[in-house]
Write a structure and sequence with these properties.
Helix content is 8%, strand content 45%. The protein is mainly beta. It has a 6-stranded antiparallel β-sheet. A 6-stranded mixed β-sheet has the order 10-9-8-7-12-11, with no helix packed on it. A hairpin with a 2-residue loop joins β4 and β5. It is elongated. The chain starts with a strand and ends in a 9-residue tail after the last strand.
Amino acid sequence: MELAVGRIGRPHGVRGEVTVEVLTDDPEARFQPGTAFGDLVVEGARWHKDVLLLRIEGVGSRDEAEELRDTMLFIDSADVPAPDDPDEFHDHQLIGLRVVTVAGQEVGEVTDVLHHGQDLLVVGKDVFIPFVKALVPVVDLEGGKLVVDPPEGLLEP
């Protein structure tokens, strides 16, 4: 499974640097010099006013950098090490898991994970479940499911 870690934005300066919309929690590890995203290889990375700037091998002008605008940068999820904490999960591990209640009722499938102060599992299109141990007591990655213990009304859209 591929994971998007960034999207190339506008050029920066005249020497081919590009801005990057960072879509990963570990940009320092993901954008190391030598990292390849298909045919694009990172030559250098630096931060400028909270914006990540990349130099890409073979890109030396503003016009060449402009041609890369909106290019998505992906990595293989197999290259992402599992978290050290057994109660911590990467989004890609949760998306696609079946969701069932402790009583065995099918709820749906995790379609997204939102991070807004409180992590929320999006089930289907319109069910949001706070991702806390009290409400999600079981995460069974190998079995492909989450068990939820929702308070009354939580599963109603």
